[in-house]
Write a structure and sequence with these properties.
Two copies of one chain form a homodimer. Chain A has a domain of 130 residues: Tetracycline Repressor, domain 2 (Orthogonal Bundle), CATH 1.10.357.10. The radius of gyration of chain A is 19 Å and the shape is elongated. Chain A is mostly helical and 192 residues long. In chain A, helix 1 packs across helix 2 and helix 8 packs antiparallel against helix 9. The interface between A and B is large, with 57 and 57 residues. Chain B binds a DNA duplex (18 and 18 nucleotides) through helix 3.
DNA sequence: GTCTATAGCCCGATAGAC
DNA sequence: GTCTATCGGGCTATAGAC
């Protein structure tokens, strides 16, 4: 990937996070990336094409980060909790979650698909850890691991929403501690 | 409120839900409401002013609906569950939650405040029901009622996000059933 | 690969007539 | 109260030169 294309993708990742899809203009991308109009349209067919490249990079970065945090020698439940408590730029919101508010992103299959795949991948990873905990006799086996994983993902996404509305990270942190306390209440012999 | 102003507020509520704040133009509002430009600017100073009126109406409608659903002679925990299972246009997203993705809404105190107040009111209402359940000996008294209420709000908001990404109501429903199962596991003598 | 020019349209708001 | 005209600017994309 050429240097100009590289900078365009990086800049688009930033602007999609800050301003959303509808709020990000090709002009703004070019200005911040220091790349001319002709150059941008040489490398990317359209705004949607560039946004797709930015989305794909953001989702793979987020998945790689989650995988890093959920790996290690610790008990599976501890790794899920570590992921839940992962420090985040809460008031900036979720880079990919916020894109779901944009009607054009949702209406465009190509732009929606990476979001779905990313959430599916993260949910599956958490679900696998919960099942692992159940098989090791460390978590109530009667729980639906996939449902709890989905709930966990939802708490995080919803936490961002509440925090941005409040103008404070407090609701995010409270929601996270709430779900952790409910899950740990179903843990077996996990008191260290 | 005059008939024109009334139609403008109603139409703006619809458009904010469908297209967001940045995606809703005064022109689009006027066209759908069947009200001319001059008329609109006679009743409302600006787009933000009209959006504020629409936001206020939407939040008071949502709070009234929640209050209706969480009232009744049933046990407090049942009323919380009934609220959680309340039928919703899931794929349209939350009318007010989605506005938190807009940077201009978040940056404008007047437009952010109604969102914060609505989420605070709903969280407080759920929290009160959870405490009521605890005082009646129907819910584990060691739980932090306010934190669980915040978690509950977050699950709903995050459920919308996951559902819109997936293009399916399934993740929303799964997340809701997950949190219900975790809360009911802390219920005392609630098996009917 | 990158440049400038231009197209055609929409934006949010104001002015002043009626 | 509602109308039309108009402002200065931004939007996404294409064309054709260099």
């Amino acid at each position: 990937m050429s240097d100009a294309a590289e900078r365009l993708v990086l800049t688009t990742q930033e602007l999609l996070w800050e301003r959303g899809y509808g709020g990000t203009s090709p002009r703004a991308i070019q200005d911040r990336a220091g790349v001319g109009q002709g150059s941008m349209y040489h490398h990317f067919r359209s705004k949607a094409d560039l946004a797709l490249a930015a989305e794909k990079r953001s989702t793979s970065e987020l998945i790689a980060e989650a995988e890093r945090v959920m790996s290690g020698p610790e008990k599976p439940l501890e790794r899920v909790v570590r992921y839940l408590r992962l420090e985040r730029a809460v008031l900036k919101g979720c880079r990919i979650g916020m894109l779901t508010a944009d009607p054009d992103v949702i209406a465009t299959e190509a732009l929606r698909a990476p979001l779905k795949e990313a959430f599916d991948a993260l949910t599956t990873r958490i679900s696998a850890l919960l099942r692992e905990a159940q098989e090791a006799g460390q978590l109530d086996a009667s729980l639906d691991a996939h449902a709890i994983a989905t709930t966990t993902m939802a708490v995080r996404q919803g936490g961002y929403v509440l925090a941005r509305a409040a103008g404070s990270t407090q609701p995010y942190e409270e929601a996270i501690e709430g779900i952790i306390s409910l899950i740990e209440a179903r843990a077996i012999g996990a008191r260290d």
